[in-house]
Amino acid sequence: MTQLNLVESxxxxxxxxxxxxxxxxxxxxxxxxxxxxxxxxxxLQARFGRARVIDTPLAEGGIAGVAVGMAAMGLRPVAEIQxxxxxxxxxxxMINHASRMRNRTRxxxxxPMVLRSPYGAGIHAPEHHSExxxxxxxxxxxxxxxxPSAPARAYGLLLAAMRDPDPVVFLEPTRLYxxxxxxxxxxxxxxxxxxxxxxxxxxxxxxxxxxxxxxEVMRAAEAxxxxxxxxxxxxxxxxxxLDMETILRSVxxxxxxxxxHEAPRAVGVGxxxxxxxxERALYSLQAPVRRVTAYDVVTPLSRLExxxxxxxxxxxxxxxxxxxxx
Length: 326
Prior knowledge:
It comes from Methylocystis echinoides. This protein is an alpha/beta fold.
């Protein structure tokens, strides 16, 4: 057992799977000699060689396209996009080819690739470096979308993503890369995909969140506990496909739900979760579902990020409002 932060756990998972499976290789901008812009691939080229840790040109569409071709031919590429703001050129390949490979070939080919990218705001990066586009990928059939919330979860989920026979978009919350460490056992054991994780049990309300919002939600849960409000916290982890059964069981128990996400409010994943709750657990609700989200504007620069990202105060206020009927 070793204390690792999230970026170190990503590195450990990549190294573990590359050692276990010769078909796993990495490609991306500056991931080799430089070890990646956040050092997630630090030391891997020296260990596994230039043929398996490949520095590419600045061409995100090309990176994704090469990865699709490699995957179709039996390799298991893990492609890194430096920031999610640069991920949009990959959507042509991910939507038109990666997500459709199994269906298009009637099962003769699959596309076992992972598209990794730092994700989200909170590090005062320039424009196009702090976005949360998970809903864009989650909308497309054939793609899995996974977002870890802690080092141990990142390690196990990334292993599972690399072993999955179909394409996975793996978004890593940049703000959590070095925020804290926790015990991570580098044992090659994966965590289940398509499954929510129960972070905290409670009786009064359910908070559903993912990624960098989980630490903020856990802080809110502690603040609410001191006020006599006992909340249950669910980490969605796999945005697509959604494990609604876990969420519905919790909502049926507590009768109240707040959904927290860093992406803009309109047409976000939170709206899908709220709709599912309305369709399948309406009569269990004691109050309308509430969402605490970013605003429907471009991610602002520098200190304005604090006002943009859902805060402890906004989350606590939403839960208190549910409990008080205001």
